[in-house]
Amino acid sequence: MFVKLFSVHSPVFKCLKTLHSRSARGFSCGAASFAPVSLKGRSCLTLKDFSSDEIKRLLWVSGDLKHRIKHEKQYLPLLQGKSIAMIFEKRSTRTRMSTETGFALLGGHPCFLTSQDIHLRVNESCADTARVLSGFCDIVLARVYSHSMLEELDNDASVPIINGLSDLYHPIQILADFLTLQEHYGSLSGLTVSWIGDGNNVLHSFMMTAAKLGVHLKIATPKGYEPERSVIQEAQKLCKEHGTQLVLTSDPMEAAHGSNVLVTDTWVSMGQEEEKKKRLKDFHGYQITMKTGSVAKPDWTFLHCLPRKMEEVDDEVFYSSRSLVFPEAENRKWTIMGLMVSLLTDYAPQIPMPKF
To answer: Which of 26, 125, 168, 206 could bridge across to 183 with cysteines, CB 3.0–4.6 Å?
Structure first.
């Protein structure tokens, strides 16, 4: 059953008091409340492992840090004296820069490690590497090809492990996406997000998160590129539990119909270069254009985790006022900061809890 879609201008979303700064946009106070949440000492391999209240807490902390540091110009050395090991099997712009600058901004010391810098799975097992890094660092972020490597690291580490991307999930991207939508729409509950593209790790993370925030999810993938069956089954359970809708189709226009948010991602991920010719053929008709948006809600917006290619979305949409891709990219920094602070400290947000 569909949850009723409310306008962001409806009284139900109006706050009892307003913050003086525009930096708190989308973080107006509301009646929503939840039990005290502590994430200190946890790992984050997938948002499947996090409850609705825990995800909301992460978004709250992230928005709070953004407000205090970016707009109020406060210095918050919350991670002073701490260090993070950043393991990167895959290159990155946003994940590396957001984590490295964010951890340093909070007073900590980031250490960037490529496959050429450490012995991981070459001369040293995952288990031994996990134990060694636990003695050097307070937390580890790993951007890897195989999700199983994250699970191995987490099994033997005595410090939190963060998934910076794996073949199965990309949780830190989704936190940035939902913070961006929270800021833009003022609330998340009742929104409809439409994914048009590959059934990949980013989509899997959307599927593990959307229902917990009251967000409906419509998915269009070409036949043969659907999300993993186990992820679909878990998402269906979450939708039933939270009263949201999950739609799976191979028709992009059907997925876009009545949606608030259109989302896509690369059709050819790192490691899939040999499949490029076939994939471009199979994804014909999946480019997001203003025609796609013509069947969406009047307030529709566009997200893309970047880097973007022309075949995925045309310039007219990508550089339009409907595109939130650059605020979305910036929010990678605030959400990874919020996550690291939450896993390493007992920090309590200073701004009022947002209306979800």
So the answer is: 26
